[in-house]
Amino acid sequence: RSPLMRRALLLDAAILSATIGLHIRILFQTGFPLDHQQIVLVGGVLVVGWVMAILMRGGYDTRHFGTGSEEFKRVLSASTTLLAAIGVVALALPAPPPLRVVVPSLLLGTAMVLLGRWMLRKWLVGERLAGRRQRRTLLIGERDLNSTLAEAFSGDPAAGFKAIGAVPPPSSTDGATVDAWLEDVMAWIASRDVCAVAVAEAKSIDVDLLRRLAWRLEGPGIDLMVSPMLSDVAGPRISVRPAAGLPLLHLDEPSLTGPKRILKRTLDLCLTVPAMLVLLPTFLLIGLAIKLDSPGRAFYVSRRVGQGGEVFGCLKFRSMRTGADLARDEVIGVPDDDIVARSREDPRITRVGRLLRRWSLDELPQLLNVVAGNMSLVGPRPVLPEELSLLAEPDHRRHLTRPGLTGLWQVSGRKEVAWPDRMRMDLHYIENWSVALDVVILAKTAKAVVAGHGAY
């Protein structure tokens, strides 16, 4: 991991130096009233302090490189910390640093570092997809759980883990057996150049064994990962809190309650209202095209199940011939292995409708649903009332929040995502919601719309 960390550190330093240097040059050209040495000194201190802040906030921990949003969160946290530190220093100094140098450099530098990290991530993911820069991982656990972990790693090569072997847990927990087992594991690791160890749940793996394994791995610097077997529960819902002298994992309630629900609603309105004003001419052109292509109204109101199981009218641009909903059962039917083919060749779709679906333009009127409060920009896609019988008991948790104009499975293949996977992704969203997750899904939605994969 050290070469990757050095690459990220040098990239950040180069970007910050170039950004701050360019800003200083612009200040000189505009006649900024400070001598050359003072501005260069402020810029140099800012670059060094910034890189140190990222380092202290864990921004060079390569375990977070390639997947998730933690890497970007830590860079943002470092920038915020640096800004706060500069504010404190400015109050204490008789001659505070010039704000015209510091504040614009901080804002522009943060954006450029994030862009640089995104480019580094694209390169790293490409390397991992090509089979390079993978962390050789040993699996420890029962055979079926090891297979599950191995499939998870192989299904997400961008995460950077490559399962190279599996070791069953010790047959018993007595001291001699555990000692011999630990020696065998360390010999296995040394002979195969293992970088990480992933432990799955097993009856014979107790706290003492896990602790002793962790101690053995500290010297070689091998990462130890433990699968908690909490399906689709991670991130913000899990926290470590001491209780009765023990570090206990606490599982919090889903975040889509209380103040965070208000925050999500505020974000929806701040993004939706300006978008509707910008897209108003597009609405008029699409409505005219629909009217010219086939008889009937430009809009179609579909009955969908919303928050709390309440049925509401979901607005769409009409992409099918009038009365097509009456033939849905005989054309589409219930979700099964062949539903993708039936949806792709649906004869009810009009010529303009097929174009609208290709670019997801038929969903634009749902911005009105977002403003009205029936929907959110991001959330589980609303199901039809007749599809409720297809939901398993846990699947109804998807109705804890407003349905979304886009969602997790929308950016993961859209209609080509199997029904069980759709439900799993919806529950994952409910369990792990955050503002950052919504922003990521919105960004991926734009990419998915352009690619058109699964749109028909």
Task: Describe the model.
The protein has a four-stranded parallel β-sheet, with helices on both faces. A two-stranded antiparallel ribbon has the order 5-6. A two-stranded antiparallel sheet has the order 7-8. It contains 14 helices and ten strands. By secondary structure, the protein is an alpha/beta fold. It is globular, with a radius of gyration of 27 Å. The chain is 52% helix and 12% strand.
Helix content: 40-55%
| Structural class computed from helices and strand pairing | alpha/beta
Number of helices: 14
Query: What proportion strand?
Result: 5-15%
State the strand order across the main sheet. Answer: 2-1-3-4
Largest sheet: 4 strands, parallel
**Computed CA radius of gyration, to the nearest angstrom:** 27 Å
Q: How would you spell out the order of helices and strands? A: HHHHEHEHEHEEEHEEHHHHEEHH
Report the average pLDDT across residues: 82
Termini separation: 43 Å
Give the topology, please.
Blueprint: H1 2-29, H2 36-56, H3 70-92, H4 99-129, E1 135-140, H5 143-155, E2 161-167, H6 175-192, E3 196-199, H7 207-218, E4 223-226, E5 238-243, E6 246-251, H8 259-293, E7 299-305, E8 311-317, H9 328-331, H10 339-344, H11 351-358, H12 366-372, E9 376-378, E10 404-406, H13 419-431, H14 435-451
Parallel strand pairs: 1-2, 1-3, 3-4, 9-10
Antiparallel strand pairs: 5-6, 7-8
Helix pairs in contact: 1-2, 1-4, 2-3, 3-4, 8-12
